[in-house]
Here is the input.
Amino acid sequence: MAEANKSVKKILITQPRPESDKSPYFELAKRYAVEMEFFPFIRLEPIPCKEFRKQKIEIAEYSSVIFTSRNAIDHFFRICEELKLNVSQDTKYFCITEAVALYLQKFILYRKRKVFYGADGTNKSLFDVMNKHKENEKFLYPCSENQQDNEIVNWLKNNKCEFQTPFMYRTISNDVSKLDAHKFDVICFFTPSGVKSLFENFPAYSQNGTFIGAFGSNTSKAIQEAGLQLHIKAPEPQVPSMIAALEKFLSTKK
Here is the structure.
């Protein structure tokens, strides 16, 4: 178990290093005098269009799309492009956060489409928005072949929504076995697959006082099911991002 008064000097973010030096992560590191390292624990592999066709899902038949990540957006529009499919201008998009919603600008004329997102980045706030529009909608929820948010799937089932979960990419564990996982005071995870990768690379891993952070309810669940103690959790009211959650946590360590 981590000690409440333990200081924080090194933080591991299990994602690729941000391309911009102006990333909030670097500003946070400077503000709290901590060292921030980035090491992606997973990578995404696109499911080829030929393989996607075997799922027999006709994208054009669905009026709404649910996005929980930028990766899902990338692969959805990749598949549409490979299928030479023009997505209807009437399509509605339901996004987990405003940041994910804004990423749609890379692919669509944002103002001319119907884009919705949750107030605080939680599944509950996403459901509140979807609940207002669920009548007569047919939902697509693009996700990884080996990872989907069961809470979203269960909500769609419980609300008797017509939906499909097309698999457009798969999540693969990276080899990070040369990393010294115990030199970090904090490790932040963003997907259940990242937690899985930790134990694939370090089968005998024990927490030994390391603070663990999680983004997303499924990631939090994976951490707890792995027998680890969770200390930093996002999104939640007031902390919509991992940056905000880390800042709140670090402010208690000063």
